[in-house]
Amino acid sequence: MTDAALLDHITRLPHSKANFKQLVRELGGKGATRADLELALVRLLARGELVELRSGHYVVTARTREYAVGRMNMHRDGYGFLIAERPIEGLKGDIYIPADSARQAMHGDRVLVRIARIEADGRADGEIVKVLKRAHPTVVGEFRVGRHGCYVVPQDERIQQWIDIPEGMEIPAGTRQIDRIGAQPIMVAEVADLDGLIVNVELLDFPEDGGRAAGRVIEILGHPDDFGIDVEIVIRKHHLPHQFPPEVVEQAERVPQAIADNELRGREDFRTFDIVTIDGETARDFDDAVWVDRLPNGNYALHVHIADVSHYVRPGTPIDAEARLRGTSVYFPDRAVPMLPFELSTNICSLVPQTDRLVLSALMEFDRQGDRVSQRFTAGVIRSAERMTYTNVHLLLEGDAGLRARYAPLVARFELMRELALILNRKRVRRGSIDFDLPEPLIEFDEFGEMTGVIRAPRNIAHRLIEEFMLAANEAVASHLEAALEASIYRIHEPPDPKRVMEFEEVAAHFGYSLGAGAIPVKKFAYADHRRDGRKVRKEIVLADAAASISSRNYQKLVAKIEGKPEERILSYLMLRSLKQARYSTDNAGHFALAADSYTHFTSPIRRYPDLIVHRLLRAALQDKAGMGEPELRAIAEECSQSERRAADAERELVEWKKVKFMEARVGEEFGALVISTTKYGLFVELENLFIEGLVPIDMLPDDRYTYHENVRKIVGQHTRREFAIGDSARVSLDRVDAAERKLQFSLVEPERKRKKRART
Measured between alpha carbons, how far is 50 from 81 in angstroms, rounded to an integer? Predict the structure, then answer.
């Protein structure tokens, strides 16, 4: 008896309920033993798919409004919210969990909650029944020596519980000296020497039934202000695997760093082609190379060659298990946590110039309209002619004489690449693909590793070349695997939630724009609150239906309309927030933003595990073999989606940390800013040219008492009627830096003439 079969059986029973004796009676005749049922029930209870109402009586969680399973999102004041995994009838938003119940769980834990009530407005509260899965096997924080013992204060303010450290568990075995980059080592002779140091703690007891969490110190990282400590803290806070196990290192070191003749057997030879890689100046691993030619019929041949990581990383090996655990490489401003050991990622798998390398290749033909007229896939071998950078390719195409002379044999090839890339881009635009050209922040450092500023990351035609060619290869592989195999992994991006679309429309209307969500003005939705409930519900439904009809073309047209306008930055940002996150899935739901029916990730197997899986699937299809089973692929897709979010959160947090650290020395300085959000707390502003955000508290606004008007998303003065809205420009002064919470507080700077005028009035 499988878990799925048992769950399906109970679901089909009246009220989706059953007791153990009933299950033995009904399923015993189908070959299920008592022992099989007991084990299956234990597994389903542990995952939260069943809940035991009383001894031996079970109900399917997904079929009741009384219970919900999800992830805890804790507030620093002790209470929390459950982010439910499934929709619940009548519920709008998350489920509030009061502090007395929330304290038995920690931020991020997966829990089962009993819903106490759901109010008419969709708000709900509940209490934790059971912690299903702990999110934090370890916690990083500051070690403290107190009167009654030692404890650790977590770095994550959402983890409310201090961790008790029992006597004898304070210093890891063999740890007496902590080496620090560019500083004297820290000597730990006794427990008192640990006071104030950052440590990593393995949790032994969790805070159940109101008790305290307890753990043992497994790492001593250094002082809070040590150089590089921020990266070490973020790595451990987000539980990023960052040290390769000995068996992985041993296997990686055994991988030959040269290609043997027998490895070339059956591969197509592209070594005479002038293939190139194009990457950033600081890139260390190169997993894609490209080549373009014009065919006799006037069409374009595009070859995209991707490092054949699947040749070296085989299923079931230690390297494969570690790569799946990591899911993705994580990139911080001054270092990276790679998915694969460097023996593979920067050596034998990297498409370094003038060196033979094994590849999986997508060979495509496009006509002059950008339509793909043929495609072929093969295992091959290449020898990259040049390691090009985005900057040099851009300058070469702009006419730089020195670079055109240096790369003379390749100039015509690059010009043909530009020609094809622009055709492919126009093709994507015609079908409705959205192209947000938002500025990406790039942190600059001095020679000592200290942050010196934030600039806009450069983006030019060379970036467009690679982007278009990689998109083309990913689409070609996705459509091929969809036709050739029963199951595959796709990169999907589902249509936006109608509620989010409506929220965006409400803001966009204040700027005079709309996505085109039907003929009903958003303002009718805004003042429907003052009407009878029945009419209000009807208005919401009509507008939601209009929002549900939004296509990627609506977004694309609005992006084009606001290009170059003062409000472009803020509206593009809000449009992005209205969209769902892309993810991996075995169900091909298409890619909304790209307007693609079938899309996957094939082009980065050195740094993304789903790409490695797609390589294995493509190899199976080329050899007319069966691919992987759908259940295993679904599990990998879910794991990799979670790993991707974890990596993104860690990267974002470290960048914010470095920004706050950078601003500590700039208290009192004035900056130009843009209002990016209004709330009851005040104005959130983004500093011009620095991509740094902070809050102007509402009680710090000058010359009046201000209140937040939620229906128009504005902050308005009660006497002067002065308004502050999203998109307004402002001049602000940095008042305070809260390094612990990574927050900046600003005040509004009034021009001198305005201050004098107000004084006279």
Answer: 21
